[in-house]
Specification:
By secondary structure, this protein is an all-beta fold. It has no helices and eleven strands. A hairpin with a 6-residue loop joins strand 4 and strand 5.
């Protein structure tokens, strides 16, 4: 069993930055690919970014994310991060981190159905 706890969300102004953290516990973190997703009110959950267990990174093709967000991981701290810069109101959403069922599991990192464990989410609200 893997437990995921996100933090770092908040209420910010357009143009500000935030760094989200997701701490994993329960099993050895190294070896898990990790993903970040978000869900805005009234919208479906969407892929934001992912980092594989080999530290390859993947980002949404959406222009709303590309170039502004950076995913990283620190295996020693069992933590995955999402650095978000130049935030705008369209980034307002609940942000979730997720992990697959097994370590060293090759999955489609951009599909939420590939993930088994999910955190409770952290709210990000960007005011104009």
């Amino acid at each position: 069993q893997v437990q995921l706890v996100e933090s770092g969300g908040g209420f910010v102004q357009a143009g500000d930055s935030l760094r989200l953290s997701c701490v994993a516990s329960g099993r050895t973190f190294e070896g898990y690919s990790m993903g970040w997703f978000r869900q805005a009110p009234g919208k479906e959950r969407e892929f934001v970014a992912a980092i594989s267990f080999t530290t390859n990174t993947y980002y949404s093709d959406s222009d709303s994310v590309k170039g502004r967000f950076t995913i990283s991981r620190d295996n020693a701290k069992n933590t995955v991060y999402l650095q978000m810069n130049t935030l705008n109101p369209e980034d307002t959403a609940v942000y979730y981190c997720a992990a697959p069922e097994r370590r060293y599991y090759t999955i489609d990192l951009m599909q939420d159905s590939s993930y088994y464990y999910w955190g409770q989410g952290t709210q990000v609200t960007v005011s104009s």
